[in-house]
Structures are given as C-alpha cells and as structure tokens.
Amino acid sequence: MRNKRVFMLMIGFILFIAVIGFSLSDRKELSLPEKFLKDSTAYVQQWFYKPAGYIAGLFEDIRNMRMIYEENEQLRITAAAYSRDKIKYNFVEKENERYKEELAFTKQQKEMFDYNYIIAQVVAVSNDANNRTMSINVGSKDGIKPNMAVTTVDGLIGIVSSVTPFTAAVTPITELSESSQTFSPVAVTILGRVNESFGILSNYNKETSRVMMTKIPEDDKMAFQDTVITSGLGNVYPRGLVVGTVENKQLGDFGLTYTATVKLAASFDHLTEVFVVQVPELEDGEQ
What we know:
Blueprint: H1 2-26, H2 32-113, E1 116-125, E2 134-136, E3 149-151, E4 156-163, E5 168-172, E6 186-190, E7 199-205, E8 210-216, E9 227-230, E10 242-251, E11 258-264, E12 273-278, H3 280-283
Antiparallel strand pairs: 1-2, 1-12, 2-5, 3-4, 3-12, 4-5, 6-7, 6-9, 7-8, 8-11, 9-10, 10-11
C-alpha cells in the first residue's frame, strides 16, 4: 500500500509538470506575477553574475599577465643570447680575417726570402719617455735572439734589444737616433729599384712622426710615394721588410747627397701582435 501511494504521487507530479509546461507553451504572454518573478530573478542574478564575471576576468587577466611576463623573460634571454653570439661571431670573423692577412703575409715573405715569422703578443709598453721599449711574450725558449727584427703586417716595428727565457724587449724604430746605442742605422732601398736606390735611416723626429733617410746618392731616382724597404746590408735587418713611403726629397747639408722624409707604414698605437723575423742564414751562420 505504501509503495503504491508513492507511485501514485510520482505519477501525479509528472502530470502536473506536463500540464504546466503545456499551458505555458500555448500562452504567448506571461502573467503579471510570472513577469514580476522572472524580472526579479534576473535582477538578482545580475548582481551575482557581474562580480563573478569581474572575478573571472581578473583571474584571466592575471593569467595573461603571467604569460606575457614569461614571454618577455624568454625574449630577453633570447635577445641577450643573440647579442652575445653576434659579438662573438663578429670577433671570430674579424680574427679570421686578420689571421688570413697575417698568414698571407708570412707566406708571401717566406716565398720571397724564406724567413720564419714567430707571432708574439705585446704584453707591456714602457712609460719611460727616454726608453719606449715594449715586451713581448716570446723569448729564448722560442728561438728569439737579440738584434732580430720585429715587424707587423704593415711594416717594420723595431729590433729585439734583450731576451729572457720567456720574454723579449723590443726597441721600436721610433727610438732611432744618431746617438742611439741600441738602434743601429737601418740600410734601406726602394721597392722595385733595389739595385738603383740606397739610403740610411738614422733619425726619428718625434714632433713630425717621420724618420729621416740620409746618404741618398745624387742620381737616385726615388720619388714621392715610393715604398721604402730594408736592403739587408749590414746583416742586421733582413732585406725586404717594408718601412714606409717617401714623402719628400731634398738636397743634403753639403750638397753632395740627398735626404728624404719617410712616413712609417706601421702604426704604433695599441700594438697587440707583432712578428719576430728569424733568418735561417743567420741561424746557420751563413751570413
């Protein structure tokens, strides 16, 4: 009886719902109480819906901000890596270009005169105004000896004045003077006219940054912009090392020989690498 009563109640409730739904579907308009109830419900719901929407939007904005922050951090890391790699690439590229020039230089010179060039780093420069020597990081352990010429790709730098097992002191050509006890006069000639030109570099003018070439024969054909190279006479400076270019030529003091002003080819500002020239004939005692 009890189950039967429950069953009858359920059937009645379903029929009630169906009748209400059917009646509402047939009506085109709601009654005033229904309209009031629906509007009230919608009004109350908006007060719950708007804050919920704001809160949901706030959490969405926070999530988006976090994503943007992470993306910006990744972009910063990528940009930093790119800058580092770019600097490294540029440095390596310039190093490769420089070494190619140096290798081409040594290959050309070795083909001409069979010299051996030992590359060295300049590790120190003296601040003494009367003794502007520089130190390089090769010494007697590397076969370096006093009176070896030192050059760069551009031109003659100076001469090795003293040696220790691991370092060597280089006296630059800018210390060249007639009274110098370290720097011997440099016998030079003109590239392309080796057997026709001759001169001696005997003095460097620190005011004009030029070196004076003296004892030039009267009939010498040297001219403006001619390339001055070492002649090899005197067995100190190997022949063929570029020194500079002729800027002018004038009559000497006694009118029998000429003098010339030579602009050095090498730059002495911020020297980092040089070459020490080994001459095999000198090593073997043939010269």
